């Protein structure tokens, strides 16, 4: 009888250990590799005169180890817009430390399927066209402005895509506005 109990205990221990190992292996195999993206705003020029256009592009780079679908439309909207009405917004601080208000925003609508790209590790996507930041913000002071771009996509699930949807904040860039003359 003692031999039978010992054998049953050993069998249960072996079975539980095996189930635990299989469970751990299963979780390790199904875990997604970490996704890491870098977002940046690229200014055409770092210095502009007071009335000159201020052209900028956006760039999203996959720094992770797995591919991810991203929305490359880069719709620029107001920070104050609802989360589902913006993909990119800018935080601009004037030389007098005042935050600039985005004066232009419109209904985004759903992006087309062609706006989504499976971004492989080490690859990047850029905005299709440059934007004149003067169309969105009033740069009225001379001096150095600080600009931070924020990417936060909320679209793609309606198309059945498993998209990258984390918020990514760029490093600040400086823009110097010079007097007109």
Overall average pLDDT: 84
Strand content: 25-35%
Quaternary state of the chains: single chain
- Unreliable runs: 12-30
Kindly describe this structure.
It is a single chain. The protein is built from one helix and twelve strands. The protein has one helix at 2-30; strands at 37-43, 47-49, 55-62, 68-71, 76-77, 88-93, 116-119, 124-126, 131-132, 143-151, 168-169, 173-178. The strands form three sheets. Strands 2, 5, 6, 10, 11 and 12 form a six-stranded mixed β-sheet that branches. Strands 1, 3, 8 and 9 form a four-stranded antiparallel β-sheet that branches.
How are the SSEs placed, and which strands pair?
Blueprint: H1 2-30, E1 37-43, E2 47-49, E3 55-62, E4 68-71, E5 76-77, E6 88-93, E7 116-119, E8 124-126, E9 131-132, E10 143-151, E11 168-169, E12 173-178
Characteristics of this structure?
single chain, 181 residues, alpha+beta, four-stranded antiparallel β-sheet, 1 helix, 16% helix
């Amino acid at each position: 009888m003692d031999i039978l109990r010992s054998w049953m205990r050993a069998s249960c221990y072996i079975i539980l250990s095996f189930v635990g190992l299989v469970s751990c292996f299963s979780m390790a195999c199904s875990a997604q590799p970490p996704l890491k993206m870098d977002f940046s705003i690229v200014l055409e020029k770092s210095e502009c005169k007071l009335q000159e256009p201020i052209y900028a592009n956006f760039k999203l780079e996959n720094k992770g180890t797995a591919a991810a679908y991203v929305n490359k439309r880069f719709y620029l909207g107001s920070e104050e817009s609802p989360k589902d009405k913006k993909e990119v917004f800018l935080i601009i601080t004037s030389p007098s430390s005042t935050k600039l208000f985005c004066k232009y925003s419109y209904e985004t609508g759903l992006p087309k399927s062609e706006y989504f790209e499976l971004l492989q590790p080490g690859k990047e996507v850029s905005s299709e066209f440059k934007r004149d930041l003067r169309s969105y913000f009033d740069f009225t002071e001379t001096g150095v402005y600080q600009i931070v771009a924020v990417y936060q996509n909320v679209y793609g699930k309606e198309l059945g895509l498993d998209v990258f949807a984390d918020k990514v904040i760029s490093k600040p860039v400086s823009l110097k506005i010079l007097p007109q003359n």
